[in-house]
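Notes to self after the call with IL:
- keep both proteins in one doc
- input above output, always
- annotate only the second one for now

Protein 1:
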Amino acid sequence: MRQFSSYNAANLLTLFLATNSAAESTWPQQTFRSTSIQAPYLNVTKNGKTELGNLFFSPSSSSMEWSYPAIYSDDGQLVWQGPNANTSAYQPQMLDGEPVLAYWQGANYLGYGFGAISILNASYQEIHRITLPGTDQHFVTTADPETFPSYIDIHESQITSDGTILVTAVNVTQCDLSPIGGPKDGWVQDGLFYEIDIKTNKVLFRWSTVEHLSEIPLTNTELPLLGSGTSKTDPYEYPHLNSVAKYGDSYLLSSRFMCSIFLLDKHGNVTWHLHGQKGASFTLLPGSSFCYQHDPRFINYSPNATSLTLHLHNNENANVFTSPTTITTGLTLTLDMQNHTATAVRKLWNPDAPLFAVSQGGFQPLPNGHVLLQHGAMPVIEEYDENGALVMNARFGFDESTQSYRGYRFREWVGKPTTRPEAVACREGGRVVVY
């Protein structure tokens, strides 16, 4: 038996004790004496000094039998576990100068969903709930006539410095698919994003891919039709938006199946387009290609900069129609805005244990120059130092059985639970042991 490491009590919602060590129990699940919950073991291997802070990710079984936001300590101990429900877009962030937790929960379909965003304070209490009611936006879904209380998609919960939140959504609509060999009266699952005021739940900005076909034509896609697009119940999944971030008045948008990153102005017009296979607005220099990416973000964005740097989780695989044979990496690119070139300046991966993530994933630059990679469909979190050396490998499940949409390290979080720690006293070997 092993007890959770002695940890700052303010950081613990509940103190648990596992019934067995990882080596003695059926991995990856562990059970506890003081509670009925179960949680994956986080097996951590360190090869050097890591950044400070807990690890935040949402372990989920591939069948979604269990899924929840969680916090683990750096040595693999469970600190907090949220409600067990379909969970995605979980991220520790700052709101009004205070750390908060934001996550999506709802009805999860294959690669999209319909739900709401919960925002929790340091006491793990919900202080805001962000929704997109169908009565306001008139969504059409593959599940019609079934309806949902809220139609926010699984992919984003990005809080801005303006007190707003960016979320994605999907909507089934008719579209001319003849440019890519489909029917003229075809159907697509449009990708949208919204900027919503957190305190009032008021939509401040709405953007639709289909409404910008003149700037983002269907021919940008890397997703074959595969017979889809002929009906409302089987729409062509164009474009599968999987992240959006705001920089000043501009939005950085990622499309998985177009292998593309777009910068949009405040009106939603395309400023530039970076296609990971075709270049688009840029010429791809050797080593700078990417595809099926997740979580692209700028480093020190300036609208008038002559050079921009962005990073992304480069999956390079998609289980829908490709075999997972290309190594997944953390990729950093420099965009020369004068010569319109894209140059790879850093590519992170472990040659001793390469990973092939077919979906999901995150890239987080850390304050000390390190990078945290969470590999989505692969239940692995890696930390690399400023020289590109692997200093931590953490695994929380078997391949193809456990996943997490993204993962983060966050040193600003100090939990302030309002509940008392749960404890159980047992008589063992003639003595009382408290768990």
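Protein 2 (the one to annotate):
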Amino acid sequence: MKKQLLTLFLSSLFLFNCSENSESETENFKPDGHYITCKLNGESFEPTLTLGSYSTKYLTITGSTKNPGKIIIITIENPEKGKTYNLNNNDSEVDLTSILVETETDKKYSANFSKGSGSITLTHLDEDSAAGIFNAITVYNDDNNDTIKITSGKFSLTSFFL
């Protein structure tokens, strides 16, 4: 009987610890490599090349694949650790924060201050590294019926190029 109770107890501990990432874990996401991952219309996208560039005015994260050639570019204007940037917030001020996806057929989809929607949260930023989460609905030109939905987006950079 003791053995069965012990097994039940240990099993329940395991099950309770297998939950998805909590909101605080996501908010505290720190760089743990050099990558971008996300889902594009439900399909996993993991670029084979990831680069980052940082100045006090802009943070740019670029990920690309070779075959088929896809590119994602995330640009954050005036980057601040802990800040969430909302895309298409209809502010009268032009903000260059954006997410761009280029497909293997060279179609460019974007979400920025004037079209698409989504958000980018910069969870970590210092002079050597950055990390964050993002999601968006990117739009081809101004055709709101031709979109790419980006979900489960995450980026991590452990160095920048100048």
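Annotation: Residues 32-157 form one domain. The two ends are 65 Å apart (CA to CA).
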